[in-house]
Amino acid sequence: MLSGKDNSGFGWDEHRQKVLAEDVVWYSYIS
After folding, report:
1. Could you tell me which residues come within 8 angstroms of residue 2 by beta carbon, excluding any fewer than 6 positions away?
2. Cα distance between the two ends of the chain
3. Which residues in the chain show pLDDT less than 70?
């Protein structure tokens, strides 16, 4: 997972080549 003060909460899984995010991040994004 990426971190930092300007981060959206989304990260990139280099191995699986897909976006990663905690459940709370997804829920706040789709709400």
Report:
1. 10, 11, 12
2. 21
3. 1-7
pLDDT at residue 8 in the model: 80
Residue 1 tokens read as 């997972």
pLDDT score of 29: 85
Structure confidence at residue 9 (pLDDT): 85
Phi/psi of residue 16, each to 5°? Answer: -90, -10
CB neighbours of 28 closer than 8 A, spacing ≥ 6? 9
The H or E element containing residue 13 is strand 10-13
Query: One-letter amino acid identity for 22?
Result: E
